[in-house]
Amino acid sequence: MRRTGFWPLRCLRISLRALLGLVTLLAIACGVFGERCRRIEERHAAEACIREAGGRVGYDFYPTCPRERRCCSRPGPRPPGPAWIRALFGDDFFAGVYDVALWRARGVDEVLHRWSRFTDVELIDAGDSDLSDAGLSALPPLPRLQRLLLDGTDVSDAGLARLRDFPQLVE
Q: Cα separation of 82 and 60, whole Å?
């Protein structure tokens, strides 16, 4: 029996339809990955703005609770996801922002405008900050927000009416 052609190429013969299907799946995966990276970049920009105002950001694997330790019911401090992916893309690639501490921060009203990507936030501590009614009205819908600490702020009763948009608030 005589072989013609290069044998690995004969073993890897696939149809054009299968090749187009593989290319389509690869393009979809690249698009999803690119969108995820874009969201993480936006979140990092918002975190930098929060840190510049004097605040801190806590992830779901390692929350920062500056004033109250009873809110730290999350497991930690091990980030989610495989270690090799975290080594490539950072510890926060699979993580969500759990809490934002703006306690005694300044410029909080401007910071709240950048929160469109913090949908997983469950706790916001804005106590003793310069938060006002305008800043509270700029807060985007946060479906998981359970605790909002506003003691020592300039929020009036009219501003507190905005909290009706957050029915899941506990305190």
A: 16
Please work out, in degrees rounded to the nearest 5, the angle formed at the alpha carbon of residue 112 by the alpha carbons of 107 and 115.
Answer: 140
Q: Is 132 helix (H, G, I), strand (E, B) or coil?
A: coil
Summarised one tens digit per residue, pLDDT across range 13-29 is: 788 899 999 999 999 99
Task: Give 55's contacts (C-beta < 8 A, 6+ positions apart).
Answer: 100, 101, 102, 103, 105, 108, 111
- Give per-residue burial for 100-128: e unless 16+ CB within 10 Å, then b: bbbbbbebbbebbebbebbebbbbbbbbb
Tokens representing residue 131 in the block: 């938060």
- Nearest to 65, CA basis, from 109, 110, 102: 102
Task: Tell whether the model's pLDDT for residue 156 goes beyond 80.
Answer: yes
**Does position 69 have pLDDT exceeding 50, yes or no?**
no
The pLDDT mean for the chain works out to 82
